[in-house]
Specification:
The complex is a heterodimer of chains A (290) and B (333).
Chain A lengths: L9 E10 L2 E11 L4 E5 L6 H8 L6 E6 L8 H4 L3 E4 L11 H11 L5 H9 L14 H13 L5 E5 L7 H15 L5 E5 L3 H4 L5 E6 L2 E7 H7 E6 L4 H6 L4 E5 L2 E7 L3 H5 L2 E4 L3 H8 L6
Parallel strand pairs in A: 3-7, 3-8, 5-6, 6-7
Antiparallel strand pairs in A: 1-2, 1-4, 8-9, 10-12, 10-13, 11-12
Chain B lengths: L4 H15 L1 H30 L4 E4 L2 E4 H5 L5 H14 L5 H18 L2 H4 L3 H4 L6 H41 L5 H6 L2 H11 L1 H21 L4 H23 L2 H16 L6 H5 L7 H6 L9 H7 L4 H23 L4
Helix pairs in contact in B: 1-2, 1-8, 2-5, 2-8, 4-10, 5-8, 5-11, 8-10, 8-11, 8-17, 11-17, 12-13
The chains are: A alpha/beta (290), B mainly alpha (333).
């Protein structure tokens, strides 16, 4: 097994976690470079949240793990100056007021920018005196996102950050994340089931299934490696001979997804395009629940 | 670019006060106000019953209280009574001190459990605040902030009650204000209450440590675990004691382990755990007001010469450490 990569923001080698006899993550090895926006994507129960918890030092795990050059299992306190996360939505305590939350984080976090948080909140209906228990679920998420986005962390981990938000605010959030928050010194890891909303902001992709990494690649490589073809009826048999990883039919035409077949070869069979992440996900995770 | 631990601690304590404002601030305030109002009502009731100028009947002749109290022969007694009142008036706040025991008990039980139950622990853990700092801030609330608030409420309440009493006396023609204000006891009373805080801290530490540890450990039913385990142990010791005829050893465990795990948050618990602090029984029988002469302040401080508070404090500190370690990996239920 290779040694941990010192240049990576996160480096894992043989990361394992078991809950009783249930293996949650089974020997994960991966590297995440600085300045990436990584999508950690997998079906329910595939080990996404456990992986994130191990990275954040919230759960014990076996194997080698380094985050920002530190071991989150033994050096978590030092790590938390540079790492921020949203582990779940709607976990702000009911008694917390908007203004108090800002005061508190400004009081304990050296990288918190109060004016930035207030600027994000100005775009919402939240007022400083409001308590979390009087807010709708969407408003709580808005507050949490505004607080977290005002923290200038080197690593930001978002586990389903936009659950319960309407589409307007979701779009706005991802736009802010990309334009206002992200820069080459930061790294962001996102898990979400709404893949189509993040696919345009991701730079890297990690597909996880049954506790194992099944695909680790940059988005560029994905575009080169996976090609979708609208195959005309006359080309169906030669196309199937090239072993597509998935096939579905749309308006009487077969849409086939190929892994690692030359673009020129496929262009002869029909209209060629880059598959959507959602289609790639479905093809990769086929049979995940069986 | 870093923030000093002391500054973080300030914010953590403020955070606790936001969360538990009702319990830590309003409960003592409400009890104090209710006691004062009751004092006023009782006074009004007494006046309504016996008239403003109640009197004694001496040889069939009505003699007013003020006439007796202001006579010269009564002089020494008068001074003694005022002295007694002024030195002991802070005891009228006893209900508040008892309430402190319960406040701290239930505060500690929920302190580390509630944040896991509502999952907000995941939010607090996303900030650069260590488990040690969080647990220490909660212990500081239990051992310093809550007692300070209650001591302030107790001082104000007992002063208010004293004021009511002397107003009633004044209405009866007995004027004691000047003497009250001139006696040092009036000012020393609240100072003594605050001065007992370090003694309280040390004696309460084992209970606070035990409760915070259970609060950090239990996945549900914190109260049942925190009280049930000691009670189970109690039943067990009684059983063993009966079997082995070693009841003195067993009762030592009952008092010094089980009792101190559960009852230490009540102010004055040291008289329960170290009865040798109290003066000898025969002395108590001599005069009824001798009990009032025990100088509770220096007597309580003298308890720190015993090994018991220090051993308990060490056990409490160890359990606080356990609470920190437990919080490290118990992110949620």
């Amino acid at each position: 097994m290779n040694a941990l990569n010192k240049d990576s923001i996160i480096s894992a080698r043989g990361l394992r976690k078991q809950y009783g006899k249930q293996v949650a993550i089974d020997g994960l090895s991966f590297d995440i470079a600085p300045g990436c926006i990584v999508g950690l994507i997998g079906p329910n129960g595939s080990g996404k949240t456990t992986t994130l918890k191990a990275i954040l030092g919230l759960t014990a795990s076996d194997g080698e793990l380094s985050v920002l050059g530190r071991d989150p299992r033994t050096q978590r306190d030092a790590l938390m100056d540079d790492v921020c996360f949203i582990a779940d939505v709607a976990i702000l305590p009911g008694w917390l007021r908007v203004g108090d939350a800002i005061d508190f984080i400004a009081g304990v976090h050296p990288r918190f920018d109060r004016s930035k948080a207030e600027r994000y909140l100005a775009h919402t209906k939240l007022a400083p005196k409001m308590k979390v228990k009087t807010m709708s679920k969407g408003m709580i998420v808005q507050l949490h996102l505004a607080l977290v986005m005002a923290i200038d962390a080197r690593l930001l981990v978002l586990d389903e950050p936009t659950l319960g938000l309407d589409i307007l605010y979701r779009k706005q959030f991802y736009q802010n994340l990309l334009e206002d928050y992200f820069d080459e010194n930061k790294t962001i890891i996102i898990t979400t089931h709404q893949i189509e909303e993040v696919e345009h902001i991701l730079s890297d992709l990690l597909f996880i299934r049954d506790g194992k990494i099944v695909l680790a690649s940059t988005m560029e490589e994905v575009g080169e490696r996976y090609i979708e073809v609208m195959v005309g009826p006359q080309h169906v048999n030669p196309a199937r001979a090239l072993l597509p990883i998935s096939e579905r039919s749309v308006f009487g035409k077969s849409v086939m997804l190929f892994d690692g077949v030359a673009r020129t070869q496929l262009a002869a069979l029909g209209e060629v395009r880059t598959p959507s992440l959602a289609d790639l996900f479905v093809a990769t995770m086929k049979g995940a629940y069986q | 670019m870093s923030i000093s631990p002391l500054k973080k601690m300030q914010w953590l304590i403020r955070r606790e006060l936001w969360e538990h404002k009702g319990m830590l601030l309003w409960t003592p305030a409400a009890i104090g106000i209710v006691m004062t109002v009751l004092g006023v009502l009782m006074t009004i009731g007494a006046i309504a019953k016996s008239g403003l100028h109640s009197s004694l009947s001496v040889n069939g002749e009505a003699v007013s209280w003020s006439a007796i109290f202001n006579t010269r022969t009564f002089g020494p007694h008068r001074a003694e009574i005022i002295d007694n009142v002024v030195n002991n008036y802070t005891y009228t706040a006893a209900p508040l001190f008892l309430a402190l025991g319960f406040l701290v008990f239930f505060y500690c039980l929920s302190a580390l459990y509630d944040e896991r139950r509502d999952r907000s622990v995941l939010f607090w853990k996303s900030l650069p605040v260590s488990d040690a700092q969080t647990v220490l801030s909660k212990a500081a609330i239990a051992l310093l902030v809550a007692p300070l608030i209650v001591a302030a409420a107790a001082s104000l309440t007992s002063l208010a009650l004293l004021l009511i009493l002397s107003s009633v006396l004044a209405l009866n023609g007995i004027h004691v204000f000047a003497e009250l204000l001139a006696s040092p006891g009036l000012y020393l009373g609240p100072l003594r209450v605050f001065g007992l805080l370090p003694v309280y801290c040390l004696w309460a530490l084992p209970t606070v440590g035990w409760l915070l540890m259970v609060s950090s450990w239990a996945r549900s039913k914190v109260f049942l675990w925190a009280v049930g385990i000691p009670l189970l142990l109690l039943v067990l010791t009684v059983w063993v004691g009966k079997l082995t005829q070693m009841e003195t050893d067993v009762s030592w465990i009952q008092m010094n382990v089980i009792g101190r795990a559960l009852l230490g948050t009540i102010p004055g618990s040291w008289y329960l755990f170290a009865p040798e602090l109290l003066p000898q029984m025969p002395a108590l029988e001599q005069g009824s007001h001798l009990a009032a002469r025990i100088d509770v302040f220096s007597n309580s401080w003298s308890s720190l010469a015993l090994p018991a508070p220090w051993l308990g404090a060490a056990a409490g500190a160890a359990m606080l450490y356990a609470a920190m370690r437990l919080r490290r990996w118990r992110a949620e239920n």
